[in-house]
Write a structure and sequence with these properties.
By secondary structure, the protein is α/β, with parallel strands linked by helices. The longest helix is centred in the middle third of the chain and has 15 residues. The protein is globular and about 40 Å long. About 45% of the residues are buried.
Amino acid sequence: MDNTAIIILAGGNSSRLGRAKQLLPYKGTTLVRNIVDAALVAALVPTIVVTGASSEEVSKELDGMKVELVYNQNWKQGMGSGIVTGMNRLLAMVPLVENVIIAVCDQPFVTSDILINLHSLKNKSKKTIVSSAYADTVGTPVLFNKIHFRALLGLKGNTGAKNLIEEQKEDMISLPFERGSLDIDTEADYLKLIND
């Protein structure tokens, strides 16, 4: 896709699950490879994966894939720190990038079509934020135009992109993605996914 990158957050320690959710088996692959595959099929360049907890294992899992791995040494501080780490790497690599999609690795139903549709809706609507809409809320994956990059770089600790979406509602349009409501936080979530 023209001048659109993706930052995939894969650095959490899966405290509620008790094991690395990034590496959970899913449809013959793993959750982290699943989202990376979707990003690569959608031709998002660069595809940046932010690691943290389980960094070595996640890096090994993605060995040979066309991704840029970056380690977030502040991963214990939460999602905001991962976004900042990814943004710093992105802007060092591609200073003139126009858009970035922020995604997480524990939404198993994100597909390349969802990512492509975020971009298409941005172009059609001329809005500068396109978020996914599910379960009466909005969230990831979410596309931000470059006018929001400074705000993304200013995120702190566990404050993710959602606050930014809320603050900039007049600049935002949402893409219906009901299956986005499933993210894998607990063993029950995972069992629901694999047994559905």
